[in-house]
Amino acid sequence: MTDATLSPGKAVAAVKRPTGASIGPRWTNALFIAPYMVFYLALLVYPLFKGIWMSMLESDMFDDTSKFTGLANYYRLFNDKIFIGTIWNTVLFVLMTVPVFVAIGLLLALALNRSDRTSASLRAIFFGTSVLSVTIVTIIWKMMYMPGNGAIASIMRLFGLEPIAFITSSSLALPAIAVTTIWWIIGLPMMLFLAALQQIPGELYEAAALDNASRWRSFWSITLPSIRRTMLVVVIYEIVAQFQLFGQAQLLTQGGPNNASRPIVLFIYEQGFRSWNLGYAAAASEVLFLIMAVAALAQFFASRKRVEG
Amino acid sequence: MRKLTTALLAGLVLTAGASAALAADKTEISVARFFGACEADYGSVTDVTKANGECGIITALINKFNAESTTTVVKPEIVEWPGYDQLTARIRSGEPPVISVMHEAVISDYSSRGLLEPLDEDFAKAGVDVNDMTDAARQGVTKDGKIYAMPFDTHTWLWHINMNLFKEAGLVDEAGKPILPKNTDELFAQAEQFKEKTGKPYFISTLANETAFYTRTFDTLLYQQNVDFFADPNKVDFSSPEAKGALQLLADIYSKDLTTKNQDYAASVSSFAAGDGGVFICGTWLIDTYDQESKKDGPLANGYAVTAFPQIYPGSPRVWADGHSWVLLKQDLSDAQRASAVEFMKFLWDNNFEWARTGHLPVRKSIIDSAEFKGLPHRDDIASLAVNGTALPSAVKRQFSIQEIEGEEVGSAMRGDKSVEEALTDAETRINELLANAK
Fold first, then answer.
1. Is B375:B303 a contact under the CB 8 Å cutoff?
2. Are B27 and B340 within 8 A, CB to CB?
3. Which chain B residues are Cβ-neighbours of A62 within 8 angstroms?
4. Which residue of A81, A256, A275 is in closest CB contact with B408?
5. B438 and A165: CB-CB below 8 Å?
6. How far from B259 is each of A171, B74, B186, B253, B268, CA to CA, in Å?
7. At residue B31, does pLDDT exceed 90?
8. Confidence band for B198, pLDDT divided at 50, 70 and 90
9. Which of A58, A168, A213, B185 could staple A217 via S-S, CB 3.0–4.6 A?
């Protein structure tokens, strides 16, 4: 025993703290995350707050003098029939696509979760469309949809049917964009589900087989619970991604006819780059941000409850 | 043999080096333009007389300039029509092209913010006689008393006619001219007669994926009724009964199946050439293309005519018009770059006749009055357009955005997605909201 242990007051002053076993925070460790934080703050946090600030300005693309207008842009937005229409279109589009991404992505993953050559080729084919640019995708689908000489129209005429005007009909334009989008990027959810399926231990299925469990029972009681977290990732990722619909709508329909397929991002683009109303465009961006955050968080908490329950 | 190979190689290296040095001596300027891409057909054509159509002629003109200029190389940057979103983004990010093509309706939006260089002094130095500009062209490029662009053409809206189908429909007079409607009743009667006799719709229209047809046709119908819908440049007025009548006319044409439906621009252009309808309402720029088509075998063979938009209301023969021009974007240009830019503009001015072969009206009085221009096909048929072409007042801001909104709403009513009254009210509200917030 030393003096130090007998009189703790002195010990603190006299005994040096052994290196490598520090107690309490060491701020130098923050240096490890500093590079990431610099980019995070510069490219995400700063633009976020700058966007919020801009949304409260009457700001023109080429006019350096901006005027603070408080919530006037938001008031204008919610009295703008076109903007309200874009919210509805975007939500509808998310509802049309996200469940399909989950269902078809999972079905494809289940069907192609094998190690033979055919499955490998089909996996590559289904994922292959995801690498195409939005321009190529919309050109392909324009050639499919055009009622005059489009591929679908030609097939319909072969059967003596009248061609359907997919992208010029106000009721079919948005579903047509949804089909295009699903065809384009179904590969990613499929791959995510495939990765999850391959993590499930084979013993579980063997045990189920010994208990004479049907395939449906195995799917319901083993597969689905095992990939629940991946499903959550897919749903949240797709919600966030599909709320940002832009290229397909701009190139296929330009938001028409009659505003039937104009998504929020296209509205933001038009206000910013065509009408040069940066403040108004920024306000619409903040509304989109809020909707996306609420939708993704709601899904996250709902799924977490189920997983924990 | 080895010596010969060495000599040949040395020669090649010297030639390549000399060419590179020569090219390096020239000042390179970027020129952003639409009008399409056709390098496959015209990539190496320098004889402009051998080029046809907008794309062919502008490509050959630039090739010719690059071949002839000892000081300048033009690097074309082809953009999708109309290209203003891209131009705006490039200006905002500090990387605009040196020269850009621009509709005259748009110039004031950019010039009023100091984004364009005034060109009066450059033109005077280069020997461009601005007094030779037509009134329409000079008005189009002059903002606040200064010239901000080199005018390139005046273009308007007209009727391209398939005379072979008109003959079949009994709509050709004894002089061989098309019989055209003089009022709305005649329009429907002739269109029905055409449909009955040929089994095809009277009109071919670009109704999908762009709004130009709707705006330009609707504006023309308003001009014909002397409606001054922009009496106040800060406020549009579509509340007149004439506006309602004009939109109802378009809606009736659609609902009575007197037009093709769901065609985009490319489809409608080829549809007319394929003989799918009698009248294609479109612009001056297709005259040369269809004239060439009529010289080949096919549905248009020896059967193409073009006419100014027929006056179907008693007010006036005025018709929608605009003009293409070339602007010099404000940026930190060297003296050599500016001189090269003006050299290229002067070249386009000097070759304005070649561009007028597309079907557009030239911007030089001396060309309009020339026998060479008058000798071009169909020019007598559209001579009235030089007087009757009407643009929106230059004080109206954001004209392209306005045209987009107007076209969307007119299209909604024409296709029956909205009532005529609702569409006109919505168009008015949206445009006035835009103008109220435009600086």
1. no
2. yes
3. 91-92, 113, 115
4. A256
5. no
6. 21, 43, 16, 7, 11
7. yes
8. very high
9. A213
pLDDT digits (tens, 9 = 90+) for A130-154: 999 999 999 999 999 987 778 999 9
Residue A1: pLDDT over 50:
no
- Residue A81 is which amino acid? K
Predicted local confidence at residue A11, as pLDDT: 47
This prediction has a pTM of 0.86
Name the residue with tokens 């080429």: A62
The fold of B2-151+324-385 is D-Maltodextrin-Binding Protein; domain 2 (3.40.190)
Long-range contacts of A296-302 (CB under 8 A, 24+ apart): A296/A236, A296/A239, A296/A240, A299/A232, A299/A235, A299/A236, A299/A239, A300/A232, A300/A236
Q: Is B306 helix (H, G, I), strand (E, B) or coil?
A: strand
| Structural domains of chain A sorted by starting position, each given as residue range(s) with its CATH number in brackets | 73-308 (1.10.3720.10)
Within 8 A of B264 by CB-CB distance, chain A residues are: 146
Nearest residue of chain B to residue A62 (CA atoms): B113
Of the pLDDT bands very low, low, confident and very high (cuts 50, 70, 90), residue A7 is: very low
- List CB contacts (< 8 A) between B205 and chain A: none
Mapped onto helix, strand or coil, the DSSP state of residue A66 is: strand
Q: How many other β-carbons are positioned within 10 Å of the β-carbon of residue B16?
A: 10
CA distances from A200 to A120, A193, A276, B306, B438 (A): 19, 11, 53, 72, 59
User: What CA–CA distance (Å, rounded) separates A23 from A9?
Assistant: 18
Task: Number of A to B CB contacts under 8 A, please give it.
Answer: 76
Q: Do domains B2-151+324-385 and B156-321+391-436 have the same CATH topology?
A: yes
Helices and strands: H and E segment counts in chain B: 20, 13
Contact A149 B267 (CB under 8 A): yes
Most A CBs within 10 Å, among B204, B209, B213, to test the A interface: B209
CA nearest A134: which of A54, A50, A252? Answer: A252
Average pLDDT on B257-284 reads: 94
Reported as a pLDDT band with limits 50, 70 and 90, residue B210 is confident
pLDDT interval class at B13 (50, 70, 90): low
From B424's Cα to the closest Cα of chain A, the distance in A is: 13
Chain B residues within 8 A of A273 when measuring between CB atoms: 85, 88-89
Q: What is the pLDDT of residue A22?
A: 61
| CATH code of the region B156-321+391-436 | 3.40.190.10
Complex ipTM > 0.95: no
**Amino acid identity at A248:** Q
pLDDT in tens, B315-374: 999 999 999 999 999 999 999 999 999 999 999 999 999 999 999 999 999 999 899 999
pLDDT attached to residue A2: 40
At B211, give phi and psi (nearest 5°): -110, 0
Distance CA B421, CA B436 (A): 22
List of chain A residues whose C-beta atoms are within 8 Å of the C-beta of residue B106: none
Mean pLDDT of A173-199: 96
Task: Choose the closest CB to B417 out of A257, A273, A276.
Answer: A257
At residue B129, the pLDDT reads 96
Closest CA to B31 of B337, B286, B349: B337
Looking at the DSSP bridge assignments, the partners of residue B151 are: B325
For chain B, domain boundaries: 2-151+324-385, 156-321+391-436
Answer yes or no: do B411 and A60 touch at CB < 8 A. Answer: no
Are B113 and A63 within 8 A, CB to CB?
Answer: yes
**Which chain B residue shows the shortest CA-CA distance from A163?**
B262
Those residues of chain A whose CB sits closer than 8 Å to some CB in chain B are 58, 60-63, 76, 80-82, 146-149, 165, 167-168, 170, 252-254, 256-260, 269, 273-277, 280
Mean pLDDT in residue range B14-43: 79
